[in-house]
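User: Hi! I have a protein structure encoded as tokens and I'd like to know what sequence might fold into it. I'm fairly new to this, so please keep things simple.
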């Protein structure tokens, strides 16, 4: 009877420890997956940000040349008068 009680306690302790280990492993693996997803998202955002910067630089360059061209046309019109 006492032996059964001790065996029950040992079984409970071992089951608790094993459950804790399984929970910890699942938690760590889940965190690693979440970290991988976050890293992928950050990489995608960085790529988009770089693309947006390139587009903005091209637009600024185009606007600068258009402004210069418009100034020249205005000066030509002014000279004609």
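Assistant: Happy to help. Inverse folding works backwards from shape to sequence: for each of the 81 positions I chose a residue that suits the local structure. Here it is:
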């Amino acid at each position: 009877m006492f032996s059964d009680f001790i065996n029950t306690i040992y079984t409970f302790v071992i089951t608790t420890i094993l459950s804790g280990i399984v929970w910890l492993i699942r938690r760590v693996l889940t965190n690693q997956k979440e970290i991988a997803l976050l890293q992928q998202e950050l990489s995608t955002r960085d790529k988009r940000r770089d693309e947006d910067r390139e587009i903005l630089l091209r637009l600024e360059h185009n606007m600068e040349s258009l402004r210069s061209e418009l100034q020249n046309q205005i000066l030509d019109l002014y000279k004609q008068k």
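A useful reference point when you look it over: The helical segments are 2-80. Feel free to ask if any position seems puzzling.
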